[in-house]
Backbone:
């Protein structure tokens, strides 16, 4: 029988780390297997290049003396210094500690961790309970990969990118 996630780890409230811990425990106890690295591929970020995962693995393995994890990052145009928070009937800066600008061109680049891939040393992930370990490096993805499918509009945008970039329907 294939490995199946138990119902308690298959809810909307289940954490990624609980699922990973369960899978690692299963493979250690039932299969006698342990892993040096964990690779998380979020299904909501399907726009991976053929060699993204291989490149990320090569980078983290080559630099594992300096880094414990690597996260895919994409540059965003929606800069935090321009974002607002709704308060009552008014608005206020979302990040009041940042210099407030109105032109995105005036800001330093900002990045978001799109879920193309997250890779961490198993020991570091289990100890720190995050892919953003204290010694985390980044892997830059292309602009067209900056999508996370969280609603129908994201799905349609991703579908359109797949058609135009890869010729897929």
Residues:
């Amino acid at each position: 029988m294939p490995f199946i996630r138990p119902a308690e780890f298959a809810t909307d409230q289940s954490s990624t780390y609980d699922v990973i811990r369960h899978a690692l425990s299963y493979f250690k106890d039932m299969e006698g297997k342990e892993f040096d690295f964990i690779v998380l591929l979020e299904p909501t970020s399907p726009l991976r290049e053929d060699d993204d995962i291989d490149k990320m693995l090569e980078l983290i393995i080559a630099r594992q003396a300096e880094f414990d994890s690597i996260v895919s990052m994409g540059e965003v145009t929606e800069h935090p210094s321009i974002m607002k928070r709704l308060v009552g009937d008014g608005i206020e800066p979302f990040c009041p500690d940042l210099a407030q600008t109105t032109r995105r061109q005036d800001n330093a680049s900002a990045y978001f961790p799109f879920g193309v891939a997250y890779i961490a040393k198993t020991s570091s992930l289990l100890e720190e309970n995050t892919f953003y370990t204290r010694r985390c490096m980044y892997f830059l993805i292309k602009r067209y990969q900056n999508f996370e499918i969280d609603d129908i509009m994201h799905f349609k945008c991703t579908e359109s990118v797949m058609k135009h970039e890869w010729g897929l329907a």
Observations:
- The chain has four helices and seven strands.
